Amino acid sequence: MESPARSSVIIVGAGISGLSAAKVLVENGVEDIIILEASERVGGRIRKQEFGGVSVELGAGWVAGVGGTKINPVWDLAKQANLRTCFSDYSNARYNIYDPSGKIFPSGIAADSYQKAVESAMQKLKNEEEKNDLDGTKNTDQPCSPETPIELAIDFILHDFEMAEVEPISTYVDFGEKEFLVADERGYEHLLYKMAEKFLFTSDGKISDSRLKLNKVVRELQHSRNGVLVTTEDDCTYQANYLILSASIGVLQSDLISFKPPLPRWKLEAINELDVIVYTKIFLKFPYKFWPAGAEKEFFMYAHERRGYYTFWQHMENAYPGSNILVVTLTNGESKRVEAQSDQETLKEAMDVLRKMFGPNIPDASDILVPRWWNNRFQRGSYSNYPIYVNQQLVDNIKAPVGRIFFTGEHTSEKFNGYVHGGYLSGIDTGNALLDEIKESQRKNLIQPFLVDPLLALTESLSLSTQADAVSPLHKCDIPTQHFLTSTKLGFSEPIL
Ligand SMILES: Cc1cc2nc3c(=O)[nH]c(=O)nc-3n(C[C@H](O)[C@H](O)[C@H](O)COP(=O)(O)OP(=O)(O)OC[C@H]3O[C@@H](n4cnc5c(N)ncnc54)[C@H](O)[C@@H]3O)c2cc1C
After folding, report:
1. Most exposed of 121, 273, 311, 414 (fewest Cβ within 10 Å)?
2. Which residue ranges have their beta carbon within 6 Å of ligand 1?
3. Predicted structure pTM score
4. Phi and psi torsions of 335, nearest 5°
């Protein structure tokens, strides 16, 4: 019976974390990897699309955390790739809040509402901390709930934008407080191609390496103490000594991938404890500009009695002058609601809100773009959010491997979850953790001491000089269901499952 060829490592997902893990492995001599990506492209939640004559970012848009004493590694990559960016100044957003009659709230009222929202957020954090501290004295103060439209609008930007965590956010503490919007026709994803160029075969700005396999939706992971066997939706199978899984927390919470044997309870509990945030940027193209321009007017808000209803707006004149594009951001319940309706209905709702702010005579948008991150079965949401009060066990369990399956992705980054740099750094950490595991396993087993490079010996990697050599023979599709790990090098001859 024919078995699929065996690699050292299979990486599931070609977003930034999967690619940075691959980079660490390849740069350390583990070259016979396979990257299985469900969609037709690399990048995952970093994704550009042509819209209204420019390139807009449907997923990550900003390099967040710049200007501090430590350099954000993604900012470093952006510099190396010569990515065009522009500074975003959010500090004025609270002074550009429109009421339904089109008037901007006086700055004093805005400042008071802001203060109230911050105090309420701090109170919530304190209460959570006390709830989790069994010996602590209980505090009976209740945080004030936002009530008026302006309070709701400010509460929305504090919680759904600036302060999803009210404690200091590591990104800003570690890397700096500035945020830069990517405004480059090649897209944020250009960073990934630049990174991939260093360890995968590329030509004409595309990754042409046969170790990267697109349109491969992983549906089943069989794992044992000897290795892993992966089955994809098109019935191909792949086997490896180890696997790195970079699918998002939303995907892990869904039934897209089944594990045999099932994941242990502690892992499932940790996966289910994280929240999935849905964050949707809706793009609208207009024949001409009718909103106030200027850097300090880049962000503006609409105070509606329904929290998060077309609240947060941005014009794209700073990024792309003359593009006449507005972006409105919805989150969570509003995102899901809008994903479920037609774009025409969404356009009508957005236009009604804009007419409240800017009057009845503004032109209709000529085009609309509504990304659907929640309904994308390879994402199931935009990014992870840890509970306000996180216990260390949860953090450890989220990233802990299960046998030969290693977990990576922004959701496994204790300090930077939810960000591109969280994805990047988690991939590097997971790649290094797997290298350590490989070395440790080799030390214990003392396998093939006669080979020059012990790491390569363990992982079955050979010194590969050409792409054709890198994975040969190709992994098998449509093979029967019983599989054997046949590697004689590693001494495996038993069925793994
Ligand atoms: C709308 C939005 C706005 C954001 N804004 C910002 C921002 O401004 N700044 C910032 O720093 N971060 C932002 N983020 C977060 C950032 O994009 C992510 O944290 C980061 O890109 C996650 O990278 P990742 O590698 O962990 O996951 P992903 O990019 O999701 O990569 C995982 C890959 O796995 C693939 N996959 C899933 N299931 C399977 C399967 N069964 N088989 C094979 N492949 C599979 C997916 O297709 C995907 O390509 C935003 C995200 C979104 C969605």
Report:
1. 273
2. 12-18, 36-39, 44-46, 59-62, 64, 216-218, 246-248, 251, 256-257, 279, 281, 373, 378-379, 382-383, 409-410, 418-420, 422-423
3. 0.88
4. -60, -45
